Amino acid sequence: MKVDARDPVDVLRKELELLQSGHYERLNDLHWRPALIFEDSPSCLNYTTPLDRGQCDGCVLMQFVPVEQRRQQIPCRHIVLTPEGETLDSLYRSCVMKDVHKAAEDWLRRTIVDLEREREICHHVDRRSSKGSGNGPRAIALYECAEPKCANSECSSTFHWSARGELLRFPVGLEQAGIGGVHQVRHYWLCECCGKRYSLVEDAVWGAVLRPGTAHCFAQPSGKIQS
């Protein structure tokens, strides 16, 4: 399986540019069906081999797909785009393409802002304080860095979907949530090794931090990743 090492923000920006430039409308004249968002994009790992969906597991967009939908034939259709829980899959069935494009464009804008905001926070944190509080190392959210990694700031394990580990959701206040309050959790990944050593807990100053032991995890599990 090919592991997608692209920057998620760069990929989402490109998708936004394609939508705004009328890329999918132009493709409608060439296809026997309406052009499909993400799937008919040059950013898709299967763009040159549309009948072979074998590379979806390694796609950078997989991190936005709910855990329970990642085994779908076309996972990116199941990214939740709206506060009402609508996805490309549901919108294709119920809306005209103009409305589908609008929902996707709004989601792209929100998500780009969210990712850039988390990175800015990460970059402005004094590295001398990376230890966090007395609980343990400060936890690194999955999208804080250009290259997603283990939540343990002292661990260099790079995140990808073929790796073992555990995904965790950590609630954040509305003032930290994304635009419109759609994103009210942050996602963290503990590699298999760190998952056996730490739990994610809340700290009044540092937010999410890691504490030795796995007995009382404040975060909610999103799912296990097994190779």
Set out the fold topology.
Blueprint: H1 8-21, H2 23-28, H3 88-94, H4 97-124, E1 165-171, E2 185-191, H5 192-195, E3 198-203, E4 207-212, E5 220-225
Antiparallel strand pairs: 1-2, 1-5, 3-4
Helix pairs in contact: 1-4
Report on the structure:
The protein has five helices and five strands; from the N terminus they run ααααββαβββ. By secondary structure, it is an alpha+beta fold. The radius of gyration is 18 Å and the shape is elongated. It starts with 7 loop residues before the first helix and ends with a strand. Residues 125-132, 174-183, 215-221 and 223-227 have low confidence and may be disordered.
Number of strands: 5
Task: List low-pLDDT spans.
Answer: 125-132, 174-183, 215-221, 223-227
> Number of DSSP helices?
5
Question: Secondary-structure element order, as H and E?
Answer: HHHHEEHEEE
Shape: elongated
Return the domain count. 2
Q: Could you give a short account of the major beta sheet?
A: 3 strands, antiparallel
Pairing-aware structural class of the strands and helices? alpha+beta
Strand order of the largest sheet: 2-1-5
Mean pLDDT figure: 76
What is the first-to-last residue Cα distance? Answer: 11 Å
Helix share of residues? 25-40%
Strand content: 5-15%
Radius of gyration: 18 Å
